[in-house]
Amino acid sequence: MNVNRVKQILSSSADIEVKYNGASVWIDQLNEDGRTATVHLRGPLEERTTVEIGELIEE
């Protein structure tokens, strides 16, 4: 995924499915470096992790 698409997803009110390593995640924010994003798994667990945006896949 590229930085522009991450920004579009973050500003959208639609439920856009994004996967990281095969798991469905929510993008919480694009980080200041412009290369990484903070995400968390969809569901009850809200543990956040930082990932490279190139590893995110829109379904």
From TrEMBL:
The lineage of its organism: Bacteria, Bacillati, Bacillota, Bacilli, Bacillales. This is Small acid-soluble spore protein H (Minor). Pfam families: SspH. GO terms for cellular component: endospore-forming forespore. One of its GO terms (biological process) is sporulation resulting in formation of a cellular spore. It is found in: Spore core. Belongs to the SspH family. Keywords: Sporulation. Its main location: other. InterPro entries: SASP_SspH.
